[in-house]
Automatic annotation (TrEMBL):
Taxonomic lineage: Bacteria, Pseudomonadati, Pseudomonadota, Gammaproteobacteria, Pseudomonadales
InterPro entries given in the database record: YgfB-like (IPR011978), YgfB-like_sf (IPR036255)
Family designation: Belongs to the UPF0149 family.
PANTHER family (UniProt xref): UPF0149 PROTEIN YGFB (PTHR37528)
Domain of life of the source: Bacteria
GO cellular component terms, A-Z: cytosol
Originating organism: Ventosimonas gracilis
Range of residues in the leader sequence: none
Protein name, entry field: Uncharacterized protein
Pfam families: UPF0149 (PF03695)
C-alpha cells in the first residue's frame, strides 16, 4: 500500500532536514492563503521555504505545488469542505489529535501573518477563537469510541471553518463588507 499523503510529505520534509510537521506546514500555508496571500507558485514556494529553510529538493517542490493547486481548487470551488493534511485514520488517535492541534497552530500563525489587524466579523472571530481552543486540546482526546467521535467532529468543523474566513477576507479585499 502506498504511503498516505501525510506520510509522503513527512518523508520529504525529513529528507530536507525540516522540523515542521506536514500538518503545521499545511495549516500555515492554508492560513496565509485564506487571509489573502494568494496562490501564485513563486510566493507559495517562498512562504514554504521561509518555514522549511530552503526547498532544494525537486520532489518537495512538486509536492508543495501540488498542495497549492489542491488548496486553490478547494477554496475557489463549489464544494464546502477542505482536505486537511493529517495522519491517516489508521494512525493512533493521539498522533492524529496532536497533528490536528499543530494544524490549528499553523493556520492561526499563517492567517495572522497576512491578515494582521483587519477587522473581522463576530463569526470570523469566533472561528479563530475555536481554532485557538482546538490547538490546545490535542492531549485531551482519549483512545476510545467517544474520543474518535470527538476527533471526527472537530476535523469536520475544520474542513469548513476556513472557508468562512476565506470568503470574508476575499470580500474585504474586494472592498465589500461581509
Amino acid at each position: 500500500m502506498p504511503p498516505s499523503p501525510y506520510s509522503a510529505l513527512a518523508d520529504l520534509l525529513i529528507q530536507q532536514g525540516a522540523v515542521i510537521s506536514p500538518a503545521e506546514l499545511h495549516g500555515l500555508l492554508l492560513g496565509r492563503s485564506v487571509a489573502g496571500s494568494g496562490f501564485a507558485a513563486e510566493p507559495w514556494l517562498a512562504d514554504a521555504a521561509e518555514l522549511i529553510g530552503s526547498i532544494a529538493d525537486e520532489a518537495l517542490q512538486k509536492a508543495l505545488i501540488g498542495l497549492q493547486i489542491l488548496l486553490k481548487a478547494e477554496l475557489e470551488g463549489r464544494d464546502i469542505t477542505l482536505t486537511l493534511l493529517l495522519p491517516p485514520d489508521s494512525a493512533p488517535l493521539a498522533e492524529r489529535a496532536s497533528a490536528l492541534g499543530k494544524w490549528c497552530q499553523g493556520f492561526l500563525s499563517g492567517f495572522g501573518l497576512i491578515a494582521g489587524s483587519i477587522a473581522l466579523s463576530a463569526d470570523a472571530q469566533e472561528v479563530l477563537q475555536d481554532l485557538a481552543s482546538i490547538s490546545t486540546v490535542q492531549d485531551g482526546l482519549e483512545a476510545s469510541e467517544d474520543g474518535e467521535g470527538d476527533y471526527m467532529q472537530v476535523m469536520e468543523y475544520l474542513r469548513v471553518a476556513p472557508l468562512l474566513l476565506y470568503g470574508e477576507c476575499a470580500q474585504k479585499a474586494e472592498g465589500k463588507t461581509p
